[in-house]
Write a structure and sequence with these properties.
This protein is an alpha+beta fold. It has twelve helices and eleven strands. The chain is 47% helix and 16% strand. The longest helix has 34 residues, at 73-106. The model has no long low-confidence stretch (mean pLDDT 84).
Length: 379
Protein backbone atom coordinates (compact mmCIF):
# COMPACT_ATOMS: atom_id res chain seq x y z
CA UNK A 1 0.00 0.00 0.00
CA UNK A 2 2.93 2.37 0.40
CA UNK A 3 2.90 2.92 -3.38
CA UNK A 4 -0.88 3.45 -3.60
CA UNK A 5 -2.07 7.06 -3.10
CA UNK A 6 -5.29 7.95 -1.29
CA UNK A 7 -6.91 8.49 -4.69
CA UNK A 8 -5.76 7.53 -8.18
CA UNK A 9 -7.45 7.78 -11.54
CA UNK A 10 -7.21 6.70 -15.17
CA UNK A 11 -9.14 8.42 -17.97
CA UNK A 12 -9.53 7.69 -21.68
CA UNK A 13 -11.34 9.75 -24.29
CA UNK A 14 -12.02 8.32 -27.72
CA UNK A 15 -9.72 5.42 -26.94
CA UNK A 16 -6.76 7.69 -26.15
CA UNK A 17 -5.37 7.80 -22.63
CA UNK A 18 -5.55 11.26 -21.12
CA UNK A 19 -4.49 10.42 -17.56
CA UNK A 20 -3.32 7.37 -15.65
CA UNK A 21 -1.76 7.39 -12.19
CA UNK A 22 -3.12 4.01 -11.12
CA UNK A 23 -0.17 2.29 -9.39
CA UNK A 24 1.05 -1.17 -10.49
CA UNK A 25 0.40 -2.39 -6.92
CA UNK A 26 -3.32 -2.16 -7.71
CA UNK A 27 -2.91 -5.51 -9.51
CA UNK A 28 -2.12 -7.13 -6.15
CA UNK A 29 -5.39 -6.05 -4.51
CA UNK A 30 -8.10 -8.69 -4.19
CA UNK A 31 -11.86 -8.32 -4.57
CA UNK A 32 -14.22 -8.65 -1.65
CA UNK A 33 -17.20 -10.41 -3.20
CA UNK A 34 -17.07 -9.86 -6.96
CA UNK A 35 -16.18 -6.77 -9.07
CA UNK A 36 -19.81 -5.65 -9.06
CA UNK A 37 -19.43 -4.82 -5.36
CA UNK A 38 -16.57 -2.40 -6.15
CA UNK A 39 -14.63 -3.26 -2.98
CA UNK A 40 -10.97 -4.34 -2.93
CA UNK A 41 -8.51 -5.13 -0.17
CA UNK A 42 -4.76 -5.33 0.26
CA UNK A 43 -3.80 -8.97 1.06
CA UNK A 44 -0.84 -7.77 3.16
CA UNK A 45 -2.30 -5.13 5.52
CA UNK A 46 -6.07 -5.52 4.85
CA UNK A 47 -6.55 -1.87 3.82
CA UNK A 48 -9.82 -1.40 1.90
CA UNK A 49 -10.26 0.43 -1.41
CA UNK A 50 -13.26 1.52 -3.44
CA UNK A 51 -12.86 0.67 -7.11
CA UNK A 52 -15.15 2.33 -9.64
CA UNK A 53 -15.30 2.11 -13.42
CA UNK A 54 -17.50 4.28 -15.62
CA UNK A 55 -18.13 4.33 -19.37
CA UNK A 56 -20.04 7.00 -21.24
CA UNK A 57 -20.86 6.82 -24.93
CA UNK A 58 -20.40 10.16 -26.65
CA UNK A 59 -20.47 10.94 -30.37
CA UNK A 60 -17.01 12.11 -31.28
CA UNK A 61 -15.25 10.44 -28.36
CA UNK A 62 -16.57 8.06 -25.70
CA UNK A 63 -15.10 8.35 -22.21
CA UNK A 64 -13.79 5.64 -19.88
CA UNK A 65 -12.78 6.31 -16.29
CA UNK A 66 -11.39 4.22 -13.43
CA UNK A 67 -11.06 5.52 -9.87
CA UNK A 68 -9.35 3.87 -6.91
CA UNK A 69 -9.95 5.42 -3.46
CA UNK A 70 -8.58 4.30 -0.11
CA UNK A 71 -11.25 3.81 2.56
CA UNK A 72 -10.98 4.18 6.31
CA UNK A 73 -10.86 0.90 8.20
CA UNK A 74 -14.31 1.50 9.73
CA UNK A 75 -15.91 2.28 6.37
CA UNK A 76 -14.16 -0.64 4.72
CA UNK A 77 -15.32 -3.07 7.41
CA UNK A 78 -18.90 -1.80 7.09
CA UNK A 79 -18.80 -2.24 3.30
CA UNK A 80 -17.20 -5.70 3.62
CA UNK A 81 -19.89 -6.93 6.01
CA UNK A 82 -22.58 -5.72 3.61
CA UNK A 83 -20.87 -7.42 0.67
CA UNK A 84 -20.48 -10.74 2.49
CA UNK A 85 -24.12 -10.60 3.54
CA UNK A 86 -25.14 -10.00 -0.09
CA UNK A 87 -22.95 -12.92 -1.20
CA UNK A 88 -24.64 -15.28 1.27
CA UNK A 89 -28.08 -14.09 0.16
CA UNK A 90 -27.13 -14.71 -3.46
CA UNK A 91 -25.91 -18.24 -2.68
CA UNK A 92 -29.25 -19.00 -1.02
CA UNK A 93 -31.10 -17.66 -4.08
CA UNK A 94 -28.87 -19.74 -6.36
CA UNK A 95 -29.58 -22.92 -4.40
CA UNK A 96 -33.31 -22.23 -4.71
CA UNK A 97 -33.25 -21.51 -8.46
CA UNK A 98 -30.74 -24.10 -9.65
CA UNK A 99 -32.94 -27.26 -9.59
CA UNK A 100 -35.36 -25.99 -12.25
CA UNK A 101 -32.47 -25.15 -14.56
CA UNK A 102 -30.80 -28.52 -14.01
CA UNK A 103 -34.14 -30.11 -14.94
CA UNK A 104 -34.16 -28.07 -18.17
CA UNK A 105 -30.67 -29.35 -19.02
CA UNK A 106 -31.87 -32.92 -18.59
CA UNK A 107 -34.65 -32.33 -21.14
CA UNK A 108 -32.37 -30.79 -23.76
CA UNK A 109 -32.95 -30.15 -26.60
CA UNK A 110 -36.74 -30.68 -26.37
CA UNK A 111 -37.50 -27.49 -24.42
CA UNK A 112 -35.37 -24.83 -26.15
CA UNK A 113 -36.69 -21.81 -24.22
CA UNK A 114 -36.08 -23.39 -20.84
CA UNK A 115 -32.71 -24.63 -22.07
CA UNK A 116 -31.68 -21.13 -23.16
CA UNK A 117 -32.69 -19.75 -19.75
CA UNK A 118 -30.66 -22.50 -18.05
CA UNK A 119 -27.61 -21.75 -20.18
CA UNK A 120 -27.83 -18.05 -19.33
CA UNK A 121 -28.36 -18.82 -15.63
CA UNK A 122 -25.23 -20.95 -15.30
CA UNK A 123 -23.20 -18.62 -17.54
CA UNK A 124 -23.78 -15.60 -15.30
CA UNK A 125 -22.98 -17.65 -12.22
CA UNK A 126 -19.72 -18.87 -13.76
CA UNK A 127 -18.61 -15.32 -14.63
CA UNK A 128 -18.97 -14.07 -11.05
CA UNK A 129 -15.67 -13.93 -9.16
CA UNK A 130 -17.43 -15.41 -6.13
CA UNK A 131 -20.07 -17.23 -8.11
CA UNK A 132 -21.74 -20.30 -6.64
CA UNK A 133 -19.96 -23.59 -7.21
CA UNK A 134 -21.25 -25.20 -10.40
CA UNK A 135 -19.52 -28.54 -9.84
CA UNK A 136 -22.82 -30.32 -9.15
CA UNK A 137 -24.23 -29.12 -12.50
CA UNK A 138 -21.23 -29.97 -14.69
CA UNK A 139 -22.39 -33.52 -15.61
CA UNK A 140 -25.79 -32.18 -16.70
CA UNK A 141 -24.22 -29.28 -18.63
CA UNK A 142 -21.96 -31.71 -20.48
CA UNK A 143 -24.73 -34.22 -21.18
CA UNK A 144 -27.00 -31.44 -22.46
CA UNK A 145 -24.21 -30.21 -24.72
CA UNK A 146 -23.65 -33.71 -26.13
CA UNK A 147 -27.32 -33.88 -27.20
CA UNK A 148 -27.48 -30.45 -28.85
CA UNK A 149 -26.65 -29.15 -32.30
CA UNK A 150 -23.48 -27.10 -31.91
CA UNK A 151 -24.74 -24.02 -33.87
CA UNK A 152 -27.46 -23.69 -31.20
CA UNK A 153 -27.14 -20.48 -29.14
CA UNK A 154 -27.59 -22.38 -25.88
CA UNK A 155 -24.81 -24.80 -26.87
CA UNK A 156 -22.44 -21.88 -27.40
CA UNK A 157 -23.39 -20.43 -24.03
CA UNK A 158 -22.77 -23.74 -22.27
CA UNK A 159 -19.34 -24.17 -23.92
CA UNK A 160 -18.31 -20.69 -22.77
CA UNK A 161 -19.69 -21.40 -19.30
CA UNK A 162 -17.50 -24.50 -18.98
CA UNK A 163 -14.41 -22.57 -20.06
CA UNK A 164 -15.14 -19.71 -17.65
CA UNK A 165 -15.69 -22.18 -14.81
CA UNK A 166 -12.37 -23.89 -15.57
CA UNK A 167 -10.54 -20.56 -15.35
CA UNK A 168 -11.92 -19.70 -11.91
CA UNK A 169 -9.23 -21.50 -9.90
CA UNK A 170 -7.08 -24.63 -9.93
CA UNK A 171 -9.69 -26.73 -8.14
CA UNK A 172 -12.42 -25.83 -10.64
CA UNK A 173 -10.07 -26.73 -13.50
CA UNK A 174 -9.40 -30.13 -11.91
CA UNK A 175 -13.15 -30.67 -11.46
CA UNK A 176 -13.86 -29.75 -15.09
CA UNK A 177 -11.17 -32.11 -16.36
CA UNK A 178 -12.56 -34.96 -14.25
CA UNK A 179 -16.11 -34.49 -15.56
CA UNK A 180 -14.91 -34.18 -19.16
CA UNK A 181 -13.11 -37.48 -18.72
CA UNK A 182 -15.94 -39.22 -16.86
CA UNK A 183 -18.54 -38.25 -19.49
CA UNK A 184 -16.27 -39.01 -22.46
CA UNK A 185 -16.52 -35.40 -23.63
CA UNK A 186 -12.74 -35.04 -23.58
CA UNK A 187 -12.85 -36.61 -27.07
CA UNK A 188 -14.57 -33.45 -28.35
CA UNK A 189 -11.78 -31.38 -30.01
CA UNK A 190 -13.20 -28.06 -28.83
CA UNK A 191 -13.76 -29.13 -25.23
CA UNK A 192 -10.53 -31.16 -25.07
CA UNK A 193 -8.52 -27.99 -25.72
CA UNK A 194 -10.42 -25.97 -23.09
CA UNK A 195 -8.43 -27.16 -20.02
CA UNK A 196 -5.15 -26.20 -21.70
CA UNK A 197 -6.42 -22.67 -22.31
CA UNK A 198 -7.86 -22.50 -18.78
CA UNK A 199 -4.51 -23.46 -17.28
CA UNK A 200 -2.67 -20.78 -19.24
CA UNK A 201 -5.24 -18.13 -18.29
CA UNK A 202 -5.06 -19.09 -14.62
CA UNK A 203 -1.29 -18.79 -14.61
CA UNK A 204 -1.22 -15.54 -16.63
CA UNK A 205 -3.83 -13.87 -14.43
CA UNK A 206 -2.41 -15.03 -11.10
CA UNK A 207 -0.27 -12.35 -9.44
CA UNK A 208 2.01 -15.08 -8.04
CA UNK A 209 2.15 -17.84 -10.67
CA UNK A 210 2.74 -15.49 -13.60
CA UNK A 211 6.08 -14.63 -11.99
CA UNK A 212 7.15 -18.26 -11.63
CA UNK A 213 8.45 -20.51 -14.44
CA UNK A 214 7.28 -24.10 -14.79
CA UNK A 215 10.56 -25.19 -13.23
CA UNK A 216 13.68 -23.42 -11.95
CA UNK A 217 16.91 -24.68 -10.35
CA UNK A 218 19.37 -22.49 -8.43
CA UNK A 219 22.67 -22.95 -6.56
CA UNK A 220 22.10 -22.39 -2.85
CA UNK A 221 25.43 -20.60 -2.35
CA UNK A 222 25.00 -17.94 -5.02
CA UNK A 223 21.37 -17.79 -6.18
CA UNK A 224 17.84 -17.45 -4.86
CA UNK A 225 14.55 -18.78 -6.13
CA UNK A 226 12.23 -16.16 -7.70
CA UNK A 227 10.75 -13.81 -5.01
CA UNK A 228 7.21 -14.96 -5.90
CA UNK A 229 8.06 -18.43 -4.54
CA UNK A 230 8.06 -16.96 -1.01
CA UNK A 231 4.34 -16.26 -1.34
CA UNK A 232 3.47 -19.93 -1.83
CA UNK A 233 1.80 -21.68 1.09
CA UNK A 234 3.57 -24.68 2.69
CA UNK A 235 1.37 -27.80 2.66
CA UNK A 236 3.87 -30.36 3.86
CA UNK A 237 7.57 -30.98 3.38
CA UNK A 238 8.41 -30.30 -0.30
CA UNK A 239 4.81 -29.45 -1.31
CA UNK A 240 3.41 -25.93 -1.70
CA UNK A 241 0.31 -24.26 -3.11
CA UNK A 242 -0.46 -20.85 -4.58
CA UNK A 243 -2.92 -19.07 -2.22
CA UNK A 244 -4.42 -17.12 -5.12
CA UNK A 245 -5.27 -19.71 -7.79
CA UNK A 246 -4.57 -23.00 -5.98
CA UNK A 247 -1.75 -24.26 -8.25
CA UNK A 248 0.45 -26.93 -6.63
CA UNK A 249 4.26 -26.85 -6.55
CA UNK A 250 6.98 -29.33 -5.61
CA UNK A 251 10.22 -28.07 -4.06
CA UNK A 252 13.29 -30.16 -3.40
CA UNK A 253 16.96 -29.91 -2.49
CA UNK A 254 19.93 -31.87 -3.88
CA UNK A 255 23.22 -32.04 -2.04
CA UNK A 256 26.64 -32.87 -3.51
CA UNK A 257 28.95 -33.22 -0.48
CA UNK A 258 31.63 -35.28 -2.21
CA UNK A 259 31.85 -33.61 -5.61
CA UNK A 260 34.69 -31.13 -5.99
CA UNK A 261 33.54 -27.65 -6.97
CA UNK A 262 29.83 -28.54 -6.78
CA UNK A 263 27.25 -26.81 -4.67
CA UNK A 264 23.93 -27.75 -3.16
CA UNK A 265 20.95 -27.05 -5.39
CA UNK A 266 17.31 -26.38 -4.78
CA UNK A 267 14.54 -26.37 -7.35
CA UNK A 268 10.83 -25.77 -7.59
CA UNK A 269 8.49 -27.28 -10.19
CA UNK A 270 4.87 -26.55 -10.97
CA UNK A 271 2.62 -29.62 -10.98
CA UNK A 272 0.62 -29.80 -14.19
CA UNK A 273 -3.14 -30.39 -13.91
CA UNK A 274 -2.53 -34.03 -14.95
CA UNK A 275 0.07 -34.53 -12.22
CA UNK A 276 -2.03 -32.80 -9.57
CA UNK A 277 -5.05 -34.86 -10.62
CA UNK A 278 -3.15 -38.13 -10.16
CA UNK A 279 -1.80 -37.02 -6.77
CA UNK A 280 -5.04 -35.44 -5.52
CA UNK A 281 -5.80 -38.02 -2.76
CA UNK A 282 -2.25 -37.57 -1.47
CA UNK A 283 -2.33 -33.75 -1.75
CA UNK A 284 -5.56 -33.67 0.22
CA UNK A 285 -3.88 -35.64 3.03
CA UNK A 286 -0.92 -33.25 3.47
CA UNK A 287 1.12 -32.70 5.57
CA UNK A 288 0.90 -36.43 6.40
CA UNK A 289 3.63 -38.50 4.70
CA UNK A 290 4.89 -35.54 2.64
CA UNK A 291 8.53 -36.55 2.96
CA UNK A 292 7.82 -40.21 2.18
CA UNK A 293 5.99 -39.42 -1.06
CA UNK A 294 8.50 -36.72 -2.02
CA UNK A 295 11.17 -39.43 -2.08
CA UNK A 296 9.44 -41.04 -5.07
CA UNK A 297 8.09 -37.91 -6.75
CA UNK A 298 11.53 -36.27 -6.82
CA UNK A 299 13.10 -39.08 -8.81
CA UNK A 300 10.15 -39.61 -11.16
CA UNK A 301 8.54 -36.19 -11.41
CA UNK A 302 7.50 -36.53 -15.06
CA UNK A 303 6.38 -40.13 -14.59
CA UNK A 304 3.91 -39.84 -11.74
CA UNK A 305 2.22 -43.26 -12.22
CA UNK A 306 5.63 -44.97 -11.97
CA UNK A 307 6.41 -42.98 -8.81
CA UNK A 308 3.17 -44.27 -7.25
CA UNK A 309 3.95 -47.87 -8.25
CA UNK A 310 7.35 -47.52 -6.60
CA UNK A 311 5.65 -46.23 -3.44
CA UNK A 312 4.14 -49.73 -3.09
CA UNK A 313 7.61 -50.79 -1.92
CA UNK A 314 7.48 -48.39 1.04
CA UNK A 315 7.56 -49.97 4.48
CA UNK A 316 4.79 -47.65 5.71
CA UNK A 317 1.38 -49.22 5.04
CA UNK A 318 -0.39 -45.83 5.03
CA UNK A 319 1.97 -44.53 2.31
CA UNK A 320 1.17 -47.59 0.19
CA UNK A 321 -2.55 -47.04 0.80
CA UNK A 322 -2.32 -43.41 -0.38
CA UNK A 323 -0.39 -44.45 -3.49
CA UNK A 324 -3.07 -47.06 -4.20
CA UNK A 325 -5.85 -44.45 -3.90
CA UNK A 326 -3.99 -42.17 -6.30
CA UNK A 327 -3.49 -44.92 -8.88
CA UNK A 328 -7.08 -46.09 -8.56
CA UNK A 329 -8.16 -42.53 -9.37
CA UNK A 330 -5.78 -42.51 -12.35
CA UNK A 331 -6.99 -45.83 -13.77
CA UNK A 332 -10.76 -45.58 -13.12
CA UNK A 333 -12.64 -45.89 -16.42
CA UNK A 334 -9.55 -44.98 -18.45
CA UNK A 335 -8.31 -47.82 -20.71
CA UNK A 336 -5.27 -45.79 -21.85
CA UNK A 337 -4.23 -45.19 -18.25
CA UNK A 338 -4.81 -48.83 -17.29
CA UNK A 339 -2.67 -49.97 -20.23
CA UNK A 340 0.05 -47.50 -19.24
CA UNK A 341 0.21 -48.85 -15.69
CA UNK A 342 0.39 -52.48 -16.86
CA UNK A 343 3.14 -51.56 -19.33
CA UNK A 344 5.16 -49.89 -16.55
CA UNK A 345 4.88 -53.00 -14.38
CA UNK A 346 5.85 -55.23 -17.31
CA UNK A 347 8.90 -53.12 -18.19
CA UNK A 348 10.21 -53.34 -14.65
CA UNK A 349 9.86 -57.10 -14.67
CA UNK A 350 12.06 -57.28 -17.76
CA UNK A 351 14.85 -54.93 -16.65
CA UNK A 352 16.65 -54.43 -13.31
CA UNK A 353 15.17 -51.55 -11.31
CA UNK A 354 17.31 -48.51 -10.56
CA UNK A 355 17.69 -46.69 -7.27
CA UNK A 356 14.34 -45.27 -6.07
CA UNK A 357 12.46 -47.08 -8.85
CA UNK A 358 12.11 -50.49 -7.26
CA UNK A 359 8.68 -52.04 -7.66
CA UNK A 360 7.62 -54.56 -5.02
CA UNK A 361 6.07 -57.26 -7.19
CA UNK A 362 4.71 -59.07 -4.12
CA UNK A 363 2.90 -56.02 -2.76
CA UNK A 364 -0.84 -56.65 -2.15
CA UNK A 365 -1.50 -53.11 -3.43
CA UNK A 366 0.28 -53.93 -6.70
CA UNK A 367 -1.80 -57.05 -7.19
CA UNK A 368 -5.01 -55.09 -6.54
CA UNK A 369 -4.12 -52.36 -9.03
CA UNK A 370 -3.26 -55.00 -11.65
CA UNK A 371 -6.71 -56.55 -11.21
CA UNK A 372 -8.36 -53.12 -11.52
CA UNK A 373 -6.42 -52.36 -14.71
CA UNK A 374 -7.45 -55.67 -16.25
CA UNK A 375 -11.05 -55.07 -15.27
CA UNK A 376 -11.01 -51.66 -17.01
CA UNK A 377 -9.51 -53.29 -20.10
CA UNK A 378 -11.93 -56.22 -19.99
CA UNK A 379 -9.23 -58.88 -19.76
Amino acid sequence: CKTIPDHSRAFWKGGEQQENNLPPAMDLLVYIGDPNHRLMQCPECQTYYDWDSEYEFLIGGSEDEINLTRLSHAEGEKRAQAVLKAVEAHKAWFAEQAPQHVDALRHAPHEPERLKAAGDFFFWEATKTTGSDLAFALPDLLQALSRMDRPDDAAGTIRITLCVYGRRNWQSLQTLRKHLRDTGMDSDPVLASAPVGCEKTLRDNCRICRNLPDAVTVLLETQDLPPASKQLVWLGQHFYQCPTCGTYYFRYWDTFPFVSGASDEQYICRLSPDQADVLQPFLESLPNHAEDMAFYVDELFDRMPLALLCAFADSDKSVRALAYRCLTRFVAGQPDHARQVLDLIRQHKQSPPTYRTRINKDSPELQKIVRECKQVLGI
